Amino acid sequence: MRPETQSKLGLFLRAVMAASRSLLLLDYDGTLAAFRKQRELALPYPGVSEAVQEIMRNGRTRVVVISGRDAKEVVPLLGVHPRPEVWGLHGAQRLKLDGTLEIPQLPQETRNALSAAENWLHYQRLHELAEFKPGSIAIHWRGADETAADEIRARALLGWMHIAQNAGLDLLEFDGGVEIRGHAPDKGDAVRTLLAEMQPQTPTAYLGDDRTDERAFRALNGRGVSILVRPVWRKSAAQLWLQPPEELLQFLLQWGKALREHSSSCGEAVAAVNG
Questions:
Q1: What is the mean pLDDT of residues 181-195?
Q2: Which one, of 25, 32, 39, lies nearest residue 73 by Cα?
Q3: Is the model's pLDDT at 264 over the cut of 70?
Q4: Could you tell me the residue ranges of all domains in the chain?
Q5: How far apart are CA 271 and CA 83, in angstroms?
């Protein structure tokens, strides 16, 4: 880990150690797990699930995963028990700890537009590259060479741009794909909601890798530390950069250590008071 990054994270983790409550916000694909062409095989990097589970079991950190996937799809991949709260569909869907799933109802116009977007994929013979979610459709070209990726993107947007403009839908580009979706909360909205549910001085970190995480980085800046998790640096609103998997796992393990040191110091203080 770069010395400047280690120094800044050290200061932040000391705040975590001293606080009675902290907040850890995590993207999934590209952050906790490497991208896979077969999305059902995108398991967390070795040691990551165990580190997140240790943080959760301490009880002093609220852990929330904010993903572009359907929230229910994240839970079995993450493999953490008890599971954390999960926000899916880039923040439009919220799976609470009690199992309650919150998702806005789509207007008929939006449903009609998404149906037209799906028909366009069939016409372009791109249907097999699509991921269908509640309220959106994504096209993935990760793993394709640059020429093939550019062609897939152009063919999808040729029809989707017109559909989105007419129906007022959003086109959300991410690393390795593009998504057409109805107007809905995004990751930045999710972060703002979660911050509002915590005390103002709660130590908070958001870890993400994609362009869809930039809104979350911007929503957090001034209230916590935003961390870009990618093998290669890119321009970002994030304050710090970690390279997965080693630096990511190191950070999570250090968070767990900070929580244990807090518990240990509290235990020593109680013992001293009790004589």
A1: 93
A2: 39
A3: no
A4: 3-103+185-273, 108-181
A5: 33
Sign of CA dihedral 14, 15, 20, 23: negative
Q: How many CA atoms lie within 13 A of 221 on its CB side?
A: 13
| 268 pLDDT above the threshold of 70 | no
Number of H helices and E strands in the chain, helices first, is 8, 12
> Is residue 119 over pLDDT 90?
yes
CA 257 to chain centroid, in Å, comes to 23
195 contacts: CB under 8 Å, gap ≥ 6: 23, 202, 204, 219, 220, 223
- What is residue 36's three-state secondary structure? coil
CA-nearest of 166, 167, 142, 162 to 152 is 142
Please give the average per-residue pLDDT across 219-241, as a whole number. Answer: 94
Query: What are 26's strand-pairing partners?
Result: 65, 207
191 CA to centre of own chain: 10
CA-based torsion, 124, 40, 70, 51: positive or negative: negative
- 234, 222 contact by CB (below 8 A): no
pTM of the full predicted structure? 0.83
- Rounded distance, CA 183 to CA 259, Å? 39
Tokens of 259: 């929580």
Domain at 3-103+185-273, CATH from 3.10.180.10, 3.40.50.300, 1.10.15.40, 3.40.50.1000: 3.40.50.1000
34 phi, psi to nearest 5 deg = -70, 150
On whether the 108-181 domain is CATH 3.40.30, my answer is no
In 3-state terms, what secondary structure has residue 174?
Answer: strand
